[in-house]
Every structure is written in C-alpha cells, then in structure tokens.
Amino acid sequence: MAKKVSMKDIANRVGVSTALVSYVLNGLEKEKRVGPELVEKIRSVAKEMKYKPNQIARSLRKGSTNTVGFIVADIANPFFGQLARIIEDEAVKLGYTVIFGSSDEDYLKFGLLIDTLVNRQVDGIIIVPTEGCSEQIKSLKEENIPIVSIDRYLPGITTNHVILDNYKATNSAVKYFISKGYKNINMIAYESSLGHMQERIRGYREAMEENGLAKELFVKKVRYDHLKHDMVKIMDELMNEKKIDALLFATNAISISGLYTLMKNDIKVPDQIAVIGFDGHEVFDFYKPQISYIKQPLEDMGKEAINILVDQIKGSPKTVHIELKSQLVVRGSCG
Amino acid sequence: MAKKVSMKDIANRVGVSTALVSYVLNGLEKEKRVGPELVEKIRSVAKEMKYKPNQIARSLRKGSTNTVGFIVADIANPFFGQLARIIEDEAVKLGYTVIFGSSDEDYLKFGLLIDTLVNRQVDGIIIVPTEGCSEQIKSLKEENIPIVSIDRYLPGITTNHVILDNYKATNSAVKYFISKGYKNINMIAYESSLGHMQERIRGYREAMEENGLAKELFVKKVRYDHLKHDMVKIMDELMNEKKIDALLFATNAISISGLYTLMKNDIKVPDQIAVIGFDGHEVFDFYKPQISYIKQPLEDMGKEAINILVDQIKGSPKTVHIELKSQLVVRGSCG
DNA sequence: CTGAAAGCGCTTACAG
DNA sequence: CTGAAAGCGCTTACAG
Asked: In chain A, which residue's Cα lies nearest the Cα of B74?
C-alpha cells in the first residue's frame, strides 16, 4: 500500500518549503521568482515521485471545486445523454468536471440531488427543472449558487436559462400542417405547468385560432410516469371519438411512444394521420415514411448553458436568457 | 452573500465544542453519550441555521470521498446511458455519488479522465476499457485504487470485471442461423484486441467450424471512429463479391449503422439477408420485420459492477469475475 | 528569492 | 459526558 505522495514529501526531498513546491507546480514560478535550478529540481522530483495533486485539499483551501452539477430527468434518455455529452466536453475544455444526476421528474429526488451537489461544494449547477422544484431553486439562489436552467424554465422564478423558441417551434409546425390542408390537428403534450410545455401548447393553440380552427383545438395530455398507458388510451380515443388528420408530438419521448402506438394500431402515416415529432431520433429515420420533426440545436444549447454557468461562477452579474431557433425538418410523414 | 454556516458557527451558538456538534450531526450521540438536551439543542440550531455539511472538508479529513468514477466510451450512446442510469441509482442507494466521463475509445482521453478522477480522490472507478489503456490500469492497481471493468476486459491484466458470456452469445446466435438453414453467415465486428470482441468473434468462428462451415467464415472489421464509412464499404463488398445469406452484428452501434445501410440499399430482410443484432434498441422494434437480437442483462451488469466496486472499496481482498447470461430474442429478421 | 505559519471545515483519538 | 487539539493536503498573505 504505497502511501500517496504529498507536496510535503517533495518539499522534504528537495529541502525546501511546501510553498515553493506549490508555486512551481502551479506555474507561479515567474510571478514568485523562484530560482530556475529549484524549479527544475522540484519538477523532476515531483515527476519521479509520481506526485498527484489532491484536488480535494485544494478545493477546501480555495473554496471552489471546479466542479459543476447537471441534473437531468433521466440520463438514459438519449436527449439528455446527448446534452450531457456536449456539456461534458465543453466543461472539460473550461477546466471543470461535471457530476450528473437523474431526477425522474420527481421534485423530491431533484431536491436530494441538489443537496448532494451543494454538500459537495459544486461551483454551479445546470438544471432541467421539474415541476414543483421552485423551493429548491429559491434556496439555491439564496445561497448564491450559480444556476442555469436548460431546456425548460420555471414560470415565476428568474434564473439564467437557455431554451428553445418553444412557441415558434410548434406554431410553425402547425402552420405547416395547415398549409398542407390539414385541419383536425391534435397535439399530445405532457401534463405540466413548466414553461416550455405551456409555450409549446400555446404555439399550437394560436396557430389553430389564427387560422379559424379554434373549434378543432384538441390537446391531449399524458403523464411522464404513465406515458405508455396514457398514450394507448389516447390513441383509442383519437381513432374512435374524433376524426383526426394530423398529430403533433410535444417531446421526443412522447413522439417515440406515439409512434409505437401508431405502429401497433397499424395506422397509416400520413394517409390516415400526418405526424410531426420532436427532436431527432433513429426511429424517425426508420419509420416508413420517415418522420418530420422539430429539430433542436442541442450543440448550441449545451455549450451556451455551460458557458453561461462558468461566466456566472466567475462573477458575471447579469442574468442571461437565451432562446435558440428550432427548425422544422420536413419528410414523408406530413403528406 | 450569506456566508456558509459551519460546525463552528453552531458550536459557538450553542456554546459547545465542534466535536459535540460533529458527533450529534453524524448520529454518534449514543456512542459518545452526549446529553439528550444538548443533542436536541444542537439538532435544532443546525436546522435553524440551515447547516449543510461540507463534504469536501469531510473527505479530506476522512481520506475517502464516497465518490466513484464511471468511464464509458460515450455517454450519449444509449447503451452506456442506460448503464450509467442503473449505476447511478444503485450508487445513490449505497451512499455514493458517481462522476461520469466519456473516452471516445481513445486511450489518451481515457488517461486524462483517470487522472482527473484520481486527483479528485474517487474511492474507486468502474471502467469500460479502451484499447491501449493497460498502462493506465496498471498504475491504478499500483496506487491501490479499486477498479471494476464492465462490458469488456483487457486480456493480460487481472481486474475485477463483469461481462457478458460473449462467446456463448454469438455462438448461440450463429447456431440459430445454421438451424434455420443459413450457411453463408457473415459477422461485422470492431477492429479491436479487447477481450469481449475477440470472444464474440471466436463464438462465431467456432460455431461455423463445428458445423463444417469453416470455408464460409467471413468476419468483416469496422473501425469505431469510421463506423459509417467502413460499413458502407463493407456492405458494397458483401453484396457484390460474396453471396451472404445471414449477418451478425457484434455490437449495438454496429447494428444500428448496419441497419441504416441495409435500409438505404433496400436489401430485404430476411429474404436477401437474415439479421441478428446486439442489445435492444427502438430501431429494432420499428424495422420491418423486427430485428432479432442478443439481449444483455444491463440491469444486472450495472448493479453487479457497482456492488463489487463498493465491496472492494470496503476492503474485500478477492478479485471477482462475473459473466452474465445473454439471451437470444428471436423475431422476424432471421426467417 | 524563500520559509514559517495560518487556515479552509471537518473528524477523532486523547484527556479529564 | 465534554473540550482542547491535532491533522487531512493544500494555498497564500506575510515577513524577511
């Protein structure tokens, strides 16, 4: 069990103080005007002894950890996995390590994750907020911990956020449907008070109303934790009660689940129902015909979020709101 | 900017030493026989002052961080995303936080991630090893940092690992093909010296040889970082040079890429080529016909890995090798 | 140019 | 039952 080597070990070996070792190993030898032969000596001894700095001790002393947290709904969901990857890469470039956590859209789990991150003294947190997490966010703000909300935001609380142009995204999609002659356009969305979902619904609603289709308005709600069950039920209703000719899915997970149900019920796309999904997914490419979708600029979203966070950590006083442009990718599924 | 409250603040307020506060807040009040009224007082003051323990200070003092690392190839890949999620959940139950990192199958990046984790004093690391990472693993072993290799292992280095029954997995798949009358069975695998890939190839080869199909042996190699390019080329060769009637994909990513190419070339499955893929994926479900695949017990794999790691951290001296059973899920794609 | 020393916020023998 | 004190491994004024 080779004991770990510390700065003290190096200092003893070279015959200097730990201060010198610290200066040299942190590249402050110019500033502190350490003698060149000592610099050389310290460097080589450190290497020879395989010195590895203890980041924990450093963090305690400096009061910052160069660590950030990223709380998603579920890291196994490719949407968040991709975002995580982008944020990871960018964070590394900026000298930060990121700790991920999955909330399952549950504000209690969300709270536990926040506590863990705070106890671990992360310098800042990127959050995908859940419903009901306002209290947690408020106390983060009280503790002056920098946060950036991504993908979503909480109505009523001001935080930095980077989100999609949610209203415009669905609004354009619906208008595209309308331009193709569809009238009975239905939207399937999450039962959620979160800002992004409300805006997506509003985008749908206003496009319908503006085009004199207010009477055809039809938003069906599914629950995050009963997605499959609710989807099956809704699809039954759609096919029986109401004649629908076009369907807009409000998120990626809803899209996939919806497509499973369409496939199982052998509903022809776009002949029986035209479809527009959310985000890209391999399934969209393999579906016959390929599914049109609202594309999100994930790369920008992730990069913006971590960069804003780091700015905040470094003391930037301004609150930043960024809204990124979506893009409608038209393929075979909408006629 | 409310300053953070420390144990000292609580101690001062209550009028006791920090030792008492520490005992009480760590549930040692019985063992240390702290007076009941003091216990009460300390608890309530801690709550009132919104005390949050500084895990960094605790870690420094205790010499352990209750943190583990998990290095995958790419967290955006759903296979690893799912694994990460399982490990995260189990780690939380065991009182650990996990730090993820993506190596991109690059041993240099792998090395940097290891260094970061070691500097952060993680108590142990779960790794998906890359080719050429042996040196890194060896030095981890020298430093006595517990490691568990998952999904793969390095031939020639003994570490704890939890892997699939790779040989049997592909062996059974090929035998299934043969039982259905296929003879010209091709396998597409990664160019890799890693144990799991070698075993999957061996499983294929021996099934062929045992059934007098040695002459039909045909393994095509693709590179991780040129997957798409190589796949297109291979598919051309397969269709032109050699008559193939069945195709076995060696990993999930290869399967997806292969299916894209089959779809683009409009090759009929299973009439022109029968197919068996690796791991589950939504795309397998949407493909017409649905793709048969070798199923991995992800849940068990993740749980075993983190539990073994924690055992090691707690001092277990034995090296553990676990091989989990795969399962062939037969659907329409193999006739 | 270099060293002695304080201190980050905890935990934990040790002493009483 | 409780307190004084050391120490984890760093960084950083301060002094010379």
From this structure: A85
- Nucleotides of strand C under 7 angstroms from a protein beta carbon: 1-5, 7-13
Judged by C1' against the alpha carbon of B58, the nearest nucleotide is C10
Of A99, A144, A282, the CB nearest to B1: A144
- Measure B40 CA to C11 C1' (Å): 21
Per-residue pLDDT of chain B (335 residues; tens, 9 = 90+): 456 899 999 999 998 989 999 999 998 888 888 888 889 899 999 999 999 999 999 999 999 999 999 999 999 999 999 999 999 999 999 999 999 999 999 999 999 999 999 999 999 999 999 999 999 999 999 889 999 999 999 888 899 999 999 999 999 999 999 999 999 999 999 999 999 999 999 999 999 999 999 888 889 999 999 999 999 999 888 888 778 899 999 999 999 999 999 999 999 999 999 999 999 999 999 999 999 999 999 999 999 999 999 999 999 989 999 999 999 999 999 98
User: Which CA distances in Å does B87 have to B118, B203, B297?
Assistant: 19, 29, 13
Interchain proximity A100–B118, CB inside 8 Å: no
Q: List the CATH code of the domain at B166-296+329-334.
A: 3.40.50.2300
Query: Which positions 31-60 of A are in contact with B (Cβ < 8 Å)?
Result: 50, 52-57, 59-60
Interatomic distance B17 CA / C11 C1' (Å): 13
Sheet-wide strand order for A246-249? A219-222, A185-190, A246-249, A274-278, A292-295, A327-329
CATH 2.60.40 is right for the domain spanning A7-53: no
A100 neighbors A70 (Cβ within 8 angstroms)? yes
- B268–A contact, CB cutoff 8 A: no
Pairing of strands B147-150, B124-127: parallel
- CATH (one of 3.30.450.40, 2.130.10.10, 3.40.50.2300, 3.40.1380.10) for B64-163+298-324: 3.40.50.2300
Residue ranges of domains in chain B: 7-53, 64-163+298-324, 166-296+329-334
- Quote the DSSP letter at residue B30: T
Rounded distance between C-alpha atoms, residue A27 and residue A14, angstroms: 18
Q: Is the pTM of this model over 0.85?
A: yes
CATH number, span A65-164+298-326 = 3.40.50.2300
